[in-house]
Amino acid sequence: GKAPVITVDGPGGSGKGTITQMLARRLGWHLLDSGALYRLTALAATRQGVALDNEAGLVLVASGLDVSFEPTPPGEPARVILAGEDVTAEIRTETCGENASKVAVLQAVRDALLQRQRDFRVLPGLVADGRDMGTVVFPDAPVKIFLTASAEERAQRRYNQLKDAGVNVNIAALLDEIRVRDERDINRSAAPLKPADDAQVIDSTGLSIEEVLGRCMAAAGQA
Ligand code: C5P
């Protein structure tokens, strides 16, 4: 049989990154950060001079991605290595996220990344973080979670993260960016952001990380 998988989908800033890292560690399972693949496609394209609306060019970039995810100590995100270069910080910028959401609207780009994502499904199991993990990439997942939070709360969390990292930002501008990205992810025709019919929706607005993790572990108990 196939290795078990828990899908965690939802909008940016819903806490998915932190929660899926913690969930994967608790369970001792692998982690797929599918957003990183879209971010890497956008970054590699920019570096290779491929325009973000050049579908055929982007397909070549996506299928040719030379990427590895290297483990780090607990609490730290995996190191992301693109063709031998550490791009962990570079792919986390707002610009890269924005560019990722532009290449992600293209069906051919999504198709080019599909098998690479499915290859992460190996024993003892996989926690898959993204927008379409439960709807498209792993439709047969035994446990599907849709993690959400209000746009205001997500902007506040992003603001706190950036402030802690010493980055000076404007919270109203962050809220605008979040709304633009939500809009693009929800309204695209290729794999739009939405809960799978059989997903458990968890709204993390006003909940602590520990509370959200507890609810996800409870859901994971059914895997
Ligand atoms: O989750 P993250 O912010 O890293 O994702 C960046 C962008 O990549 C998202 O805004 C979305 O447009 C795209 N994405 C996607 N499908 C996924 C993961 C991310 O379309 N499974």
From TrEMBL:
One Pfam family from the record: Cytidylate_kin
Superkingdom in the source lineage: Bacteria
Location(s) in or outside the cell: Cytoplasm
Keyword terms: ATP-binding, Cytoplasm, Kinase, Nucleotide-binding, Transferase
Gene Ontology MF terms: ATP binding; CMP kinase activity; dCMP kinase activity
Keyword Cytoplasm: yes
Catalytic activity entry: CMP + ATP = CDP + ADP; dCMP + ATP = dCDP + ADP
EC number: 2.7.4.25
Limits of the Cytidylate kinase domain: 6-219
GO cellular component: a single term: cytosol
BP GO terms, sorted: nucleobase-containing small molecule interconversion; pyrimidine nucleotide metabolic process
Record: residues binding ATP: G10, P11, G12, G13, S14, G15, K16, G17, T18
Signal peptide: none
Family named by the database record: Belongs to the cytidylate kinase family. Type 1 subfamily.
Alphabetical list of PANTHER family matching this protein: CYTIDYLATE KINASE, CYTIDYLATE KINASE/PANTOATE-BETA-ALANINE LIGASE
Protein name, per record: Cytidylate kinase
Provenance organism: Marinobacter fuscus
Biological classification of the source: Bacteria, Pseudomonadati, Pseudomonadota, Gammaproteobacteria, Pseudomonadales
